[in-house]
Structures are given as C-alpha cells and as structure tokens.
Amino acid sequence: QLLELVDTLLEEATDLRGKQVIVTAGPTREPLDPVRFFSNYSSGKMGYALAQEARRRGAHVTLITGPTALEAPVGVKTVAVQTAEEMYNAVNKRYQQADIVIKAAAVADYQPVDVFAHKQKKNADEWSVALERTKDILRFLGEHKKEQILVGFAAESEQLHTYAKSKLERKNLDLIVANNITTEGAGFDVDTNVVTVFTRDGQETAYPQASKKEVAKQILNELEAYMKRREA
Amino acid sequence: QLLELVDTLLEEATDLRGKQVIVTAGPTREPLDPVRFFSNYSSGKMGYALAQEARRRGAHVTLITGPTALEAPVGVKTVAVQTAEEMYNAVNKRYQQADIVIKAAAVADYQPVDVFAHKQKKNADEWSVALERTKDILRFLGEHKKEQILVGFAAESEQLHTYAKSKLERKNLDLIVANNITTEGAGFDVDTNVVTVFTRDGQETAYPQASKKEVAKQILNELEAYMKRREA
C-alpha cells in the first residue's frame, strides 16, 4: 500500500502529462425492485489499474465507477454511480473538457422496463422480465467526438476479431481493447488479462497474459503511440 | 483488525459453546450468460457479523457465503458459492450434522430459465427474460428439520409483521429476524440494522437501530434464550 502510494506520487511525465482523462470502471446495476437487480461480472480491476497508471503518467484523472469492492486510487477524482443512466450522466457532464476517455466499465446494456417500488413477492412460479436497451454511452461519445480520443473495450466469448473491429468502426473509437473472456487468465474478476489492441489507423497488437497493472501500461503505451502518430 | 482478532480468540463460553452452527450470508448470482447475471443488494455484513459472534461464543461455525467484498472471519470455516443451487447443495450437505442454521443469505428466488453459453449480443431493442423459481432452501430445511434450530430472515419493504410471522409458520422456523429495508439505517449495504425478532413460542422483540455487530449479539441472545425455554 505504501509502496503503491510512493509509486503513484513519483509520477513519470509522459505525453499524458496534464491531460484530462476520464476512466470508467466496474459494472452497473439495473434495479428491478428495491431488492433485485441485473448486473454483470466486472470487478472494476482493469479500469482502476488504468486510472492509476494514467495518474502516474501525470494526467488529471476522473474515475467514474460502478459498485466494486476496490479502494479508490490515490490522486484520482472518483465518482461513484450505480446504474447505466447515472454513468451516462456522469460521463456526459465531463465529456467536453476531456482529452481522453477510456471506457473500461462494463455498463449493463439492458435494464428492466418496469422498476417496482416494492419488493415483488415470489408468488408466481415463472416471472417474465421485460428488458429494454440502456443508453449506449460509447455510441453517444463517438457521435459527439471533437478532439477527444476514445478508447473502448470488447469483452467477447467468441469471434473476438470480428466483433472488436466492427465495434471500433461503429462506435467511432480510436482504440479498442479486446479480450476473450473464456480465455484462462483473461476477463472478469481475475488479476490478469490477455488483450489485443486495435487502433483506428489499422494497427493490431496481441499481448501475452499479464497482470492488469501491466496491461494498463500496455494500453497507455498504445494510446501514446497512437497520439504521436495522429499528431505527426 | 488486531483488536478484532484478540476479541475473537478471547471467546466467551455460552450455551453455544461446542455447537455446530451454519451461517449463510451474502447474495447469490444467477447467470444469464457468461457476462450477465441477476442478483440482489445483500452486502453479507449481517451474516458475517453473526458468524463472528457465534464463533466468539465458542461455536464451531461454517459460513456459507455468496460473493461479497468482505474478508473471511477468523476462526470460521468459510465456503464460497455463487448460485442459489450451489448454496442449496453446500447447506444440505452439512445440515444433518448441524445444531443451528442461521440463514442470513439473501438467496435469489428466481433464476433465468435459459442460461446461454455465449455472451448474447445486444441486437434486440427489447429482451424478455423468463425466470423460474430457485430451490427454496429455507423451506427444505424446515421440512427436514429434526433437532436443528432454524433461524430465518425477512427483509421487506411493507407489511413487515404479517410477512414475517407468516414466513415463520410456513417455513417451520424457530426464529425469524425481520427488518424493513426502507427504514433508514436498516437493510442492505449499511453498517447498521433495525430488527424485530419473532420466536416460534410467540415472543416478539423490537430492537432499536444498532451496528450489525451489535444486532448479531441481539439475535444470538434471543436464540440462546429460546433454546433455554425449549429445554425447560
């Protein structure tokens, strides 16, 4: 903990120095009644590691996070949200001032159509829950992009390349970080990840398994290299 | 942390000494696909506090817990589960050897009928998810009760007395701990609780707001008093 603090304070000045960086992290929870909700298995570890690493490189970092079991990183402004809608509002409010947005959160893409004010009793043997799409935050960011650099994630269980490259295009991203959640040592609730980074200008780099802290460095290195190419 | 450890090791011998106690805690998660699940807002704090207090009173405690952000209590055998079905199996396996079962877990009462092996793509604007009832663990324990003492919980947002007393009867419980989750300082993800304890022999005691650690003492005091009356 202390070593981590020292490490964070001894920031390394890179091209991220002084940049306004928004990182989103964790799952969202979409309530069905005061007791029940829909969510996903995101632990928030990847996003928190990215926030910490961006801070270490001298960026001003805002971490917008769904419910996780993690401690807020030192030196980072942390904003806690619950639902996809709250996440959307928190990101949107800060988007125009941002230089870089890294959307590592696993935002729920469906929410219950009806949210009950009281706990529903379990009378029925079956219960059909109607879900509707949440606001697509990444699509919104892509559509309203000016000079911002937009980094998205694709967590897939099949056809990783196809889905990731299609998402990069559709959402108007600059980088996409893709991982196959069925690969051992990748994905949710583990301390490591195995990613492939695709960039808007056609680069594709597959990395071996590494700690999420290490993967955060890989992603920000890719990001800085992309920024350099874009400016050139 | 150290003080807590000392506190736990300096056990207080009471009528729980040497008893085999099972405590369940936390939520369960019912998967829909490799990414999405249904769950509830239980933090596990009440169950963990009960496990720790039972241990402090000299009981042999097994804590069967869904996913929480909490550290396993010292001196307690902890078994981690994810789904209602895993919780059912873990409790059932140990039930005949148990003297007391305290079911503080907020087990999901519905699970998706279809569990998809691959992440479902968000193509449709609407998605109707069919849910079916999970196995009713408490009912099963009530039906197969021999000498065990069975403690249940009722977390309600309305009609607390009616629901709690009806559940005590229907599930063949010895004690039920009822709390209104809409009361400030009660219920999920807070460090305090406000409970009313109902016993099989007709006692009803309402307690003021207290820390979950303190509420654990209230509940186990009620339990020990009930055991004394039953033996008399």
Structural summary, described in words:
The structure is a homodimer of 232-residue chains. With 232 residues, chain A is α/β, with parallel strands linked by helices. Chain A has a single domain, classed as Rossmann fold, CATH 3.40.50. Chain A is 30% helix and 27% strand. Chain A is built from six helices and 14 strands. Chain A has helices spanning 2-9, 45-56, 84-95, 137-143, 160-170, 212-231; strands at 20-25, 30-31, 36-40, 60-65, 77-80, 100-103, 110-112, 126-133, 149-156, 175-180, 192-193, 196-199, 204-206, 210-211. The first copy, chain A, has an eight-stranded mixed beta sheet, with helices on both faces. The longest helix of chain A is centred in the C-terminal third of the chain and has 20 residues, at 212-231. The radius of gyration of chain A is 18 Å and the shape is globular. The interface between A and B is medium-sized, with 34 and 34 residues.
